[in-house]
Amino acid sequence: MTDLQKRSLFKAAALTAVAAAALVGCGKKEEPAPAPAPVAAAPAPAPKPEPLKIAFAYVGPVGDGGWTFAHDNGRKALEAEFGDKIATSFVENVPESADAERVLRDMTGQGNKLIFGTTFGYMEPMLKVAADNAGIKFEHATGYKQADNMRTYDSRTYEGAYMAGVIAGAMTKTNTLGVVGSIPIPEVVRNINAFTLGAQSSNPKVKTKVVWVNGWFDPPKETEAATSLINGGADVLFQNTDSPAVLKTAEAKGKRAFGWDSDMTAYGPKAHLASAVINWGPYYIKATKEAMDGSWKGGTAAWWGVKEGAIDIVSIAEDVPAETKAKVEEVKKGLADGSFAIWKGPITDNTGKVQVAKDTVADDKFLGGLNFYVKGVEGKVPGAK
For a Cys staple, 180 with which of 111, 149, 186, 225, CB 3.0–4.6 Å? Predict the structure, then answer.
């Protein structure tokens, strides 16, 4: 290639480069992509409120089939009603002694804000613990002392006892009824008397024998007491103790008996005449609602019965006469609407003294201190003057 040709090639290449540069210089400048608009952060969900912590102190085991079993059914009704808005717990077999105070204080330390003590003997320990824990609400079953942050509740168990008595009076063949008593306090004496009054309304000839075991839950002693009553001529047994031992004893010895506090049919189906039951659920639900909405008030007392759905008689045996069943239903209806009064005079004690005058209805204060046996009950209330 000649020098002239080389110079021509270099010149052409230079012109091409200049043209390319000119094209680039004349082109549009590339703009960066716009930044995305900021997205507003979603508000954080409101924290879920802490559940109300509720504790129960039980005098017996939850499997006693009676008193404690009924209370625990009430606790379960609470859980079904309120779900995760509450958290419940319980301690069973808590003695009616200084140990009850320890358990109650432990419950306060665990953050419980509503505490139920389910037996009479917890009254004094609960009063002491309540005095030291003003921000906690205390409920005491069957007691009579209250405080600003402690109130009492009870069920009119004597209504169930009376209806059981109506059946017992009709079913006895020996005219002798037997009662296994727990502890001789007014609550239990009321039930013995009401059972006897109910029986006398069906059969004026009946008499009632009582054996005390001085405890709420003691199956061996309950069995021994039931056996003693049967050996003494009783063919229908009633109880104010917490286990099904009395009904089991009646079943084993071919006699009849009642369930108490809960439906005990399964423990002695041949012996079982009926069960006088307590439904604590309605009261526990009411008390919890009040604790949650701020309307709970201490220093008060509640005493619920058939009228409030707390007491009933269930699983009446098939061989109970139709007219007796009808009479029980009549009594139940009268208790519900207030047209029937169990404690309407004249009522005399077993010494012949008139305790409730004719046409007078005993008030709750009278019933709360009741310490005598009505006519027809043998013996004397232990400790009564």
Answer: 225
User: Which residue's entry shows tokens 């009278």?
Assistant: 366
CATH superfamily label, 52-156+281-307: Response regulator (3.40.50.2300)
Fold of the domain spanning 157-279+311-368? Rossmann fold (3.40.50)
194-207 per-position pLDDT tens digit: 999 999 999 999 99
Output the pTM of the full model: 0.86
More confident residue, 17 or 132: 132
- The predicted-structure confidence for 261-314, as pLDDT tens digits, reads as follows 999 999 999 999 999 999 999 999 999 999 999 999 999 999 999 999 999 999
Is the confidence at residue 23, as pLDDT, over 60?
A: no
> For tokens 């050996």, what's the residue?
231
- Comma-separated ranges of CATH 3.40.50.2300 domains in the chain: 52-156+281-307, 157-279+311-368
